[in-house]
Structures are given as C-alpha cells and as structure tokens.
Amino acid sequence: MNTHYKTYVAGHQGMVGSAIIRALQLRGQTNIVTRTHAELDLSNQAAVRTFFEIEKPDQVYLAAAKVGGIHANNTYPAEFIYQNLMIEANVIHEAWRVGVRQLLFLGSSCIYPKLAAQPMTENALLTGELEETNEPYAVAKIAGIKLCESYNRQYGQSHDVDYRSVMPTNLYGPNDNYHPENSHVIPALIRRFHEAKVANSPAVTIWGSGTPRREFLYVDDMADACVHIMNLDKAIYGAHTKPMQSHVNVGFGEDITIRELAEAVGKVVEYHGKIEFDTSKPDGAPRKLMDSSLLNSLGWEAKISLDEGLTRAYEDFLINGLSLRK
C-alpha cells in the first residue's frame, strides 16, 4: 500500500471506522482524513460536495452508516433506508466527481435472501426475498453495491475508477454500541449479562428461541480484511470477481446458535444465573453463514477466535461501554 496516500475514513468514530484507522496506522499510514458527524453530515449533498472539493482524497473507506439490531431495524425502518441511501449516494458520487480512484464500500450480510443456501456465496445476491425485519436497511446496502458497480462499469476505463464492496458478517469488538435497545446481539448480551451479574439477577431473558445460527467476526479482523482488499492489485481483484457482481464476503468461517453465543458471553462475563428465551420475539433469519472462500483465495483469513474476541469485547465494555453507550 502507498502510505503517502490521503485516505478518508467515513464513519471513523464508529466501531468499524475506528478499527480501519487502527489497521491503517499499523501499516504506517499517517495522512488520514476524518470528520465527525457534527463537522460533516454525510446525508447533506452540498456539505459532502464541499468536503470532497477541499480534501480531494486518494482513497475512501465508506464505513459510515446507520446500523442497529432487530429491534432498531423494526422500529425505525424509514430512518434506516433514508439515511443509508443518502450517505452512500453522496459519498460515492462526490468521490467520483473529484477524481477519487479507489473507494471501498462496506455493506452487510443482510443483503442476501432470508432463505439463501448456506453458506451464502456472493452470487446469492438478488435471488430471493429478504428478511422482513431489516429489509429497508438491506435494500439500501444493495443500492450501495450497485452504485459501486455502476460507476466501475461506466467510468472504469475512461477514469480508471476502481470502487469495491465488502460484505461483513456480524461484527463486534471495541467501540461497539452497547445501547440496551438499539445494539446488535453481542454488545446487547454483554451489557445484559453484566447488569444481571451486578444486580445478582437469577435469570437473563434473550429474544427469540435461541436456535438461529449466526457467524461473528472481530472488528479488527474486518478492518484488516478491508485494507487488504483495498490494496489488492486491480488485475488480481478483477480476475477473482465478476464485473457486474464484484462484492466480496468477509466472514469468520464458522457459525453458532444464539443459545451457544449467550452461554459463551455469560461465561466471559462470569454470570452464573439461568438463561431463558422469549419465543414471542422474532428470531430473524434461521441461519446466516458467509462463504468467504473468495476472500481466502485473495490471500486473507480471520485470525481472532470468538472466545478471544468476546474477552476483548468485554474488557472494552468495562472501560468504555458503561460511560459512553448509555
């Protein structure tokens, strides 16, 4: 990678964006551009245009997004589709307008059909109905993939545009959102088990049946994969991906049930009460396991185990979670 490139990381205060900055810095990258939401509202086209005209970065990591778990997606569908569509449309278009050649868009495994064959391969995209609870978010993320592919298709030769997309599995780790209602499953479980331990509660209730299977990837592994993919030679990347379906899955390679996950989190937190399941709450998709063989063929594999990752995540929660994620 060229350590002298000016690199803009959109969403640098989030879990993924902050991990990408750590990964870049580990590789000697020092010319990193960031903006807080207060400094730059990425849903404001005029503001984004002005930013790109001033900064003119060489690379863009588009990690900014409105994200959340099942409850948040169910409760705020309009916000999820609108904000994500606006962010990605503004950033991708304005990056192209000022001549940014390299951009990496971060999507989500929810882009795949609810009943996609497992493990899910990249070519499962748009082959079936989406999971109802997060369909608006998924549609927005699919639009981001297609934006990248469309700009490549129209401007790849004439402007040497090279915009890529990665689809991470469920992520967790430092700087996660520990909100009691709007967080993803691992940070929600960490907070719930910790509070139950402190209160000496006899039981913790988990949404759903506990039977759905999910795959989890530590966020620093994800960031490492992002930097790896961004800096692959264009010919190598193009040889492994299809022109009209050029996104790449980023997963750990194994999945577990939500019940097994809850037990693992309880063990890390050292909560010794009962774990109960509220089957009146939605489960979401029955299984979501990514096929990451394409990424593996491009020279990258996950390194951090779930047990090690959960231990690190709980340490982060004890230091930052209670004070920063009320």
UniProtKB/TrEMBL annotation:
Binding site for NADP(+): 11-17, 106-109, 141, 168-171, 184
Name of the molecule in the record: GDP-L-fucose synthase
Residue ranges occupied by any NAD-dependent epimerase/dehydratase domain in the UniProt entry: 8-234
SUPFAM superfamilies, per the entry: NAD(P)-binding Rossmann-fold domains
Matching Gene3D superfamilies: NAD(P)-binding Rossmann-like Domain, UDP-galactose 4-epimerase, domain 1
Superkingdom classification of source: Bacteria
Gene Ontology terms for molecular function: GDP-L-fucose synthase activity; isomerase activity; NADP+ binding
Pathway annotation: Nucleotide-sugar biosynthesis; GDP-L-fucose biosynthesis via de novo pathway; GDP-L-fucose from GDP-alpha-D-mannose: step 2/2
Chain positions recorded as substrate binding sites: 192, 207, 214, 283
CDD domains listed in its UniProt record: GDP_FS_SDR_e (cd05239)
EC number(s) reported in the record: 1.1.1.271
Pfam family for this entry, one: Epimerase
Site (Important for catalytic activity): 108, 110
Function of the protein: Catalyzes the two-step NADP-dependent conversion of GDP-4-dehydro-6-deoxy-D-mannose to GDP-fucose, involving an epimerase and a reductase reaction.
Catalytic activity line of the entry: GDP-beta-L-fucose + NADP(+) = GDP-4-dehydro-alpha-D-rhamnose + NADPH + H(+)
InterPro entries per the UniProt record, alphabetical: Epimerase_deHydtase, GDP_fucose/colitose_synth, NAD(P)-bd_dom_sf
Source species taxonomy: Bacteria, Pseudomonadati, Pseudomonadota, Betaproteobacteria, Burkholderiales
Catalytic site: 137
Record's keyword terms, sorted: Isomerase, Multifunctional enzyme, NADP, Oxidoreductase
Signal peptide: none
Family: Belongs to the NAD(P)-dependent epimerase/dehydratase family. Fucose synthase subfamily.
